[in-house]
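By convention, each integer encodes one residue's backbone shape. The lines below illustrate.
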Amino acid sequence: MKVLIIRKNVIISVFILAFAILVSLNTIFVPTIETFKDNREKKTLAKQTYKEYKVLDDKFSFKLPRDWTTWNESFEGGEIVYSLFFKSPDAKLHGFIQVWNIKKPLEQFVNESKMAAVGAVDYKYYDVSQIMVDRKIGYLMDYSRQNAEGNYYKGYEALIEGDNNKIYRASFFVEEKDWKSFYKMVFNTIIQSFKIRL
């Protein structure tokens, strides 16, 4: 009887030890695998080549990753004078570059952009900071909002004030579960590639 109890205790102890080892290995290897994956993706992004777009009679130029799919859309009404939509090859990243002709201060436009979506969506957070692009003042909005299906999307948008009532806009969207912090490198490269001429 004692032998059975001892054997049972040994089996339980071995099981507990094996479980503890598995938990420890998971704690060690999962972050290592994630770090390796992040480093591999960062190297891929570092090798990324960009294509330059010159639009509006060469008065506005910017760069996008060469392997992204792009397409133009036009809008009636005259407020949006240029619009180029894009998406990454894996379709996880998407957004647009636009030029608006609007007679209001940029700060007011930024505030109205956020308020326009209130009620239709819930924001998890919404941060606004001032930036400088091509020696022009702009605003960067970093937020997470819920779509109609209940999924959260990360938005990263820049609005730059130009001359003659022009506002230059870059908007990027990624489902929050697919967001990687180094995507900011790509987005900031695109935003800082803006060249605005009179």
